[in-house]
Amino acid sequence: MDATRIIAVRHGETAWNVDTRLQGHLDIELNDRGLWQAQRVADALADEPVAAVYSSDLARAWQTAQAIAQRHHLAVQPEPRLRERAFGHFEGRTFLDIERELPEQAERWRRRDPEFAPAGGGESLLQFRARVTAAVAHLAGRHPGELLVLVAHGGVMDLLYRAATGQELQAPRTWLLGNAHINRMLWTGQGLTLVGWADDSHLDDGALDEAAAA
After folding, report:
1. Enzyme catalytic residues
2. Angle between helical axes of 59-71 and 32-44 (0-180°, round to 10)
3. In the chain, what is the straight-line distance between the N-terminal and C-terminal CA atoms, in Å?
């Protein structure tokens, strides 16, 4: 099978990113800077031979994906499995709120316990990884030899990087997950491999990197 090329993009900035407030499955739109970032990443990808654009159905990703797709005269295709991790009762709280109000859960979250699922309908990292990797394999398998753009969230980008580099779920993060950064991978039946990561050359002063608040 021919390899599928993938460009994965985290959505542009939201006001909740700035506030370090967890969004999870809550539907928060881009702020003005995020809309600008979406246009900039669309400009940067305008000459790429994009066959399809898939996106999380949450507004912050969808708005970013629409900007990219319009340059290629494509319709964005929704893929709910590309949503951010569900964070249950963490959603809507800042990092400091979580540490103060839910200290035992915060400790398990901070040390990346793979089986920990935040109360109130949250997903564990194991559940989250299974959802995202299944979605990417399904989408990439539909487009052998083509280039896909996947627009999603910081947590999704983190899982893709780990999958492409063989990092364990509990490994400390040493890579960037910036808003509107361009991340490149190849997919074959054997999985993902990394081509390039966190290209932000299209952004004038970088982007907010609050991955967990995605």
Report:
1. 11, 84
2. 30
3. 33
